Amino acid sequence: MSIRQKPLIRVQVEGHCPTMSLTEVRMRGHAFVVDEPPYRHGTDVGPTPLETMLGALVACTNVIARRIAHERGVNLQFRRIGCEGMLDHRGIDAEADVPVPFPDITLTLEAETDATADQLDALRASLEQRCPMSVILRNAGSRITTHWRITPPKEPTV
User: Fold this and answer.
1) Structural domain total, the chain
2) Which domain holds residue 23?
3) Residues 55, 79 share a domain
Protein backbone atom coordinates (compact mmCIF):
# COMPACT_ATOMS: atom_id res chain seq x y z
CA MET A 1 0.00 0.00 0.00
CA SER A 2 1.47 3.35 -0.95
CA ILE A 3 0.93 6.40 1.20
CA ARG A 4 0.12 9.59 -0.63
CA GLN A 5 2.43 12.42 0.36
CA LYS A 6 0.58 15.62 1.22
CA PRO A 7 2.26 19.00 1.14
CA LEU A 8 3.09 20.60 4.45
CA ILE A 9 0.85 23.46 5.49
CA ARG A 10 2.50 26.67 6.62
CA VAL A 11 1.12 27.94 9.94
CA GLN A 12 2.31 31.41 10.87
CA VAL A 13 1.82 33.20 14.18
CA GLU A 14 3.46 36.42 15.26
CA GLY A 15 3.90 37.85 18.73
CA HIS A 16 4.27 41.45 19.82
CA CYS A 17 5.82 41.81 23.26
CA PRO A 18 5.12 45.18 24.90
CA THR A 19 6.24 44.01 28.37
CA MET A 20 8.29 41.17 29.83
CA SER A 21 5.13 39.16 30.52
CA LEU A 22 2.55 40.34 28.00
CA THR A 23 2.48 38.89 24.49
CA GLU A 24 -0.04 39.89 21.84
CA VAL A 25 -0.36 36.95 19.47
CA ARG A 26 -1.70 37.55 15.96
CA MET A 27 -2.57 35.28 13.07
CA ARG A 28 -4.90 35.39 10.04
CA GLY A 29 -6.64 38.56 11.22
CA HIS A 30 -7.18 37.18 14.74
CA ALA A 31 -5.46 38.08 17.98
CA PHE A 32 -5.28 37.04 21.60
CA VAL A 33 -3.13 37.97 24.56
CA VAL A 34 -1.03 35.82 26.84
CA ASP A 35 0.06 37.27 30.17
CA GLU A 36 1.19 36.38 33.67
CA PRO A 37 -0.38 37.23 37.03
CA PRO A 38 0.99 40.26 38.90
CA TYR A 39 3.14 38.14 41.25
CA ARG A 40 5.08 37.06 38.11
CA HIS A 41 5.45 40.61 36.77
CA GLY A 42 2.33 40.46 34.58
CA THR A 43 -0.88 42.43 34.40
CA ASP A 44 -3.19 39.38 34.34
CA VAL A 45 -5.08 40.51 31.23
CA GLY A 46 -4.98 37.02 29.73
CA PRO A 47 -4.12 33.39 30.40
CA THR A 48 -0.53 32.29 31.00
CA PRO A 49 1.41 30.50 28.26
CA LEU A 50 0.86 27.15 30.00
CA GLU A 51 -2.87 27.78 30.47
CA THR A 52 -3.01 28.66 26.78
CA MET A 53 -1.31 25.36 25.91
CA LEU A 54 -3.79 23.35 27.98
CA GLY A 55 -6.62 25.35 26.41
CA ALA A 56 -5.26 24.39 22.99
CA LEU A 57 -5.38 20.71 24.05
CA VAL A 58 -9.05 21.12 25.04
CA ALA A 59 -9.92 22.88 21.78
CA CYS A 60 -7.98 20.37 19.67
CA THR A 61 -9.71 17.48 21.45
CA ASN A 62 -13.11 19.00 20.62
CA VAL A 63 -12.27 19.67 16.97
CA ILE A 64 -10.64 16.33 16.19
CA ALA A 65 -13.12 14.16 18.14
CA ARG A 66 -16.06 15.82 16.43
CA ARG A 67 -14.35 15.54 13.04
CA ILE A 68 -13.82 11.80 13.59
CA ALA A 69 -17.44 11.40 14.73
CA HIS A 70 -18.66 13.27 11.64
CA GLU A 71 -16.53 11.07 9.34
CA ARG A 72 -18.07 7.98 10.95
CA GLY A 73 -21.66 9.21 10.94
CA VAL A 74 -21.84 9.42 14.73
CA ASN A 75 -23.54 12.22 16.65
CA LEU A 76 -21.14 13.61 19.29
CA GLN A 77 -21.74 16.79 21.29
CA PHE A 78 -19.50 17.93 24.14
CA ARG A 79 -21.19 19.63 27.08
CA ARG A 80 -17.82 20.27 28.72
CA ILE A 81 -14.17 19.33 28.39
CA GLY A 82 -12.20 19.83 31.59
CA CYS A 83 -8.43 19.78 31.72
CA GLU A 84 -6.07 19.64 34.67
CA GLY A 85 -2.31 19.64 34.29
CA MET A 86 0.06 18.89 37.14
CA LEU A 87 2.93 21.34 36.61
CA ASP A 88 6.43 20.53 37.87
CA HIS A 89 7.74 24.08 38.28
CA ARG A 90 11.28 23.06 39.31
CA GLY A 91 12.60 23.29 35.75
CA ILE A 92 11.17 26.78 35.26
CA ASP A 93 12.75 27.85 38.56
CA ALA A 94 16.12 26.24 37.62
CA GLU A 95 15.94 24.02 40.70
CA ALA A 96 16.14 20.68 38.88
CA ASP A 97 16.48 19.15 35.44
CA VAL A 98 12.82 18.46 34.68
CA PRO A 99 12.33 16.74 31.31
CA VAL A 100 8.52 17.19 31.27
CA PRO A 101 6.89 20.28 32.78
CA PHE A 102 3.46 18.57 32.77
CA PRO A 103 4.10 14.93 33.74
CA ASP A 104 0.37 14.32 34.20
CA ILE A 105 -2.60 15.82 32.40
CA THR A 106 -6.19 14.74 32.96
CA LEU A 107 -8.97 15.41 30.47
CA THR A 108 -12.61 14.97 31.46
CA LEU A 109 -14.92 14.82 28.46
CA GLU A 110 -18.65 15.17 29.16
CA ALA A 111 -20.49 14.27 25.99
CA GLU A 112 -23.75 13.17 24.49
CA THR A 113 -23.51 10.59 21.72
CA ASP A 114 -25.49 7.95 19.92
CA ALA A 115 -22.31 5.90 19.34
CA THR A 116 -22.26 2.24 20.31
CA ALA A 117 -19.60 1.05 22.77
CA ASP A 118 -17.50 -0.30 19.86
CA GLN A 119 -17.84 2.93 17.88
CA LEU A 120 -16.84 4.95 20.93
CA ASP A 121 -13.78 2.75 21.58
CA ALA A 122 -12.67 3.20 17.96
CA LEU A 123 -13.26 6.96 18.16
CA ARG A 124 -11.18 7.20 21.36
CA ALA A 125 -8.29 5.28 19.78
CA SER A 126 -8.39 7.41 16.64
CA LEU A 127 -8.53 10.61 18.72
CA GLU A 128 -5.29 9.66 20.53
CA GLN A 129 -3.55 9.16 17.19
CA ARG A 130 -4.97 12.18 15.36
CA CYS A 131 -5.23 15.06 17.86
CA PRO A 132 -2.05 17.09 17.18
CA MET A 133 -1.88 18.66 20.66
CA SER A 134 -2.31 15.27 22.33
CA VAL A 135 0.35 13.73 20.08
CA ILE A 136 2.79 16.58 20.80
CA LEU A 137 2.30 16.37 24.56
CA ARG A 138 2.51 12.57 24.70
CA ASN A 139 5.66 12.55 22.55
CA ALA A 140 7.16 15.11 24.93
CA GLY A 141 6.56 12.66 27.79
CA SER A 142 3.30 13.85 29.35
CA ARG A 143 0.86 11.16 30.47
CA ILE A 144 -2.66 12.11 29.41
CA THR A 145 -5.48 10.35 31.20
CA THR A 146 -8.89 10.79 29.62
CA HIS A 147 -12.17 10.20 31.42
CA TRP A 148 -15.28 10.07 29.26
CA ARG A 149 -18.68 10.76 30.81
CA ILE A 150 -21.17 9.70 28.17
CA THR A 151 -24.92 10.16 28.12
CA PRO A 152 -27.30 9.38 25.27
CA PRO A 153 -28.54 12.35 23.24
CA LYS A 154 -31.62 14.07 24.60
CA GLU A 155 -34.76 13.40 22.63
CA PRO A 156 -36.07 16.52 20.89
CA THR A 157 -39.15 17.93 22.57
CA VAL A 158 -42.27 18.44 20.48
Assistant:
1) 2
2) 14-46
3) yes
Tell me the pLDDT tens digit for each residue of 82-98. 999 999 999 989 999 99
In a domain, 2, yes or no: no
Same structural domain for residues 30 and 81?
no
Do 98 and 21 share a structural domain? Answer: no
The per-residue pLDDT for range 59-68, each reduced to its tens digit, is 999 999 999 9
Q: Is 79 helix (H, G, I), strand (E, B) or coil?
A: strand
Q: Is residue 140 over pLDDT 80?
A: yes
Strands of the 143-151 sheet, one edge to the other: 76-86, 104-113, 143-151
- Distances 104 to 44, 65, 150, 158 between C-alpha atoms, Å: 25, 21, 23, 45
Q: How many residues does the chain have?
A: 158
Neighbours of 144 (CB within 10 A): 19
Question: How many CA atoms does the CB half-sphere of 7 hold within 13 Å?
Answer: 3
